[in-house]
Design goal:
Elements (H helix, E strand, L loop, with lengths): L3 H26 L24 H10 E2 L8 E2 L6 H15 L8 H23 L21 E5 L2 E4 H13 L28 H13 L5 E4 L2 E5 L1 H4 L8 H11 L2 H8 L5 E4 L8
Helix pairs in contact: 3-4, 4-5, 8-9
């Protein structure tokens, strides 16, 4: 015989689960607006100093499997040694001890991209084995860790969303940022095998855009139906806020045959995303 208390608990659990099924898709499809954090606006173009990203490059050389036969770069989270975990923490401490406002815009852009990616990799390593980054949010209804405080710089707490939507997007207004910051997932644009610097950022952003647009997880046709990554849906405003503008953007980086098909496409645009971890 089920008691009234047991029935109450069961009903409550069902209600919570039902509510979560309603809210999670909303969270997964919503994207924060680019809203600048004024504290990080400052820069110093007269400073010719460069920031050292050699430790990050060493980790990429050792654990990033690139190129991978799937076309998706894979990070070998499971086999990162204790020594290299320490090196990653040293690198993160090195970056967060700096005041990026004292550097040029070019150095800042590379700094924030590398920091975002290194923080994400470190997060996965610290919670491995995990099947998807979306399970790592601290809040009960969190879809991923992007709103969790992950670091502190100049006594300012920062989340991954702060870095992407409060610094990178509003300051640079460069939609190629979406091809650079990596969410440790299959459908995310590739984690670059080369650390960003002020000298190579332009080339790496263009290469990242080209690789993603010409891979099926970025753009594909199912018979005559165009399907694109949900990134182009979530951040539609960054890609011109219209289907035509998006198709024009995609055609810039698409190979000739794909570009021709995109520019002549007139139908609806579907989208999807695979949150499985980008592990080997």
């Amino acid at each position: 015989m089920i008691s009234l208390k047991q029935r109450y608990i069961s009903s409550t659990i069902k209600l919570i689960l039902s509510f979560s099924m309603l809210i999670f898709p909303t969270l997964a499809s919503a994207a924060p607006e680019p809203k600048g954090i004024p504290f990080w606006d400052a820069h110093e173009e007269s400073n010719i100093a460069v920031i050292d990203h050699s430790r990050w490059q060493s980790l990429l050389n050792r654990y990033l499997i690139s190129p991978h036969q799937s076309g998706v770069n894979r990070f070998d989270y499971a086999n990162v040694s204790a020594l290299h975990k320490k090196q990653l923490n040293i690198y993160l401490s090195q970056l967060t001890s700096l005041d990026p406002r004292n550097y040029s815009r070019g150095e800042q852009k590379a700094y924030w991209i590398n920091l975002y990616n290194a923080l994400t990799v470190n997060l996965i390593i610290n919670h491995y084995p995990v099947k998807t980054i979306t399970k790592l949010g601290k809040g009960f209804f969190s879809f991923g860790p992007w709103d969790d405080v992950i670091t502190t710089i100049q006594e300012k707490e920062l989340t991954l969303n702060d870095i992407e939507h409060g610094i990178l997007r509003p300051i640079y207004k460069d939609n190629r940022i979406h091809y650079a910051v990596n969410c440790a997932s299959y459908s995310c644009p590739n984690l670059s095998q080369t650390a960003y610097t002020s000298e190579n950022t332009e080339a790496l952003l263009n290469a990242g855009a080209h690789d993603y647009v010409n891979h099926s997880r970025g753009v594909s046709f199912d018979n005559k139906q165009l399907r694109v990554s949900s990134i182009f849906h979530w951040y539609r405003v960054d890609f011109g806020d219209s289907d035509k503008a998006l198709l024009d953007h995609l055609s810039l980086y698409a190979k000739p045959m794909l570009a021709k098909r995109l520019l002549s496409y007139k139908g609806e645009i579907d989208h999807d995303y695979n949150w499985a971890l980008n592990k080997p």
